[in-house]
Amino acid sequence: MPRLRHPLTGGIYELLPDGLVRVEENGRSGLFQPDGRWHSGDLRHADPHLLVWIGGPRLGSRGLPGRSAERSGAAAAAPDGGEPTPSRDDGEGDGEG
Asked: Is residue 6 within 8 Å of residue 29, measured between CB atoms?
């Protein structure tokens, strides 16, 4: 299961199979809902951002629309579906120096 160390407190945040997040910090531990609500344990506070990050919903890939592995050439399709935009590498240099 996913497990992270908090960068400031050193606490360990671990997602459990039942969807709760176990937090261990300074010898104490607690269980929390991913939305930040305390569930049980002697540790009653945790970083809500890390709880959501580790216990929240899993999002899919964030690839750009219209981009794919096949289109990795020098020219990219125009957003309006028109002619592709040429690359800057035309072998001529940039005209300076």
From this structure: no
Determine the pLDDT at residue 73. 47
pTM comes to: 0.60
Task: List CB contacts of 15: < 8 A, sequence separation 6 or more.
Answer: 1, 2, 3, 21, 54, 55
Q: The tokens of 6 are what?
A: 């908090």
* Burial of residue 29 (number of CB atoms within 10 Å: 0-12, 13-18, 19+): middle
Q: Is the pLDDT of residue 2 over 90?
A: no
DSSP 8-state class, residue 5: E
Question: What's the pLDDT at 48?
Answer: 95
What are the CA-CA distances from residue 73 to residues 3, 15, 22, 62, 80 (Å)? Answer: 38, 41, 46, 20, 19
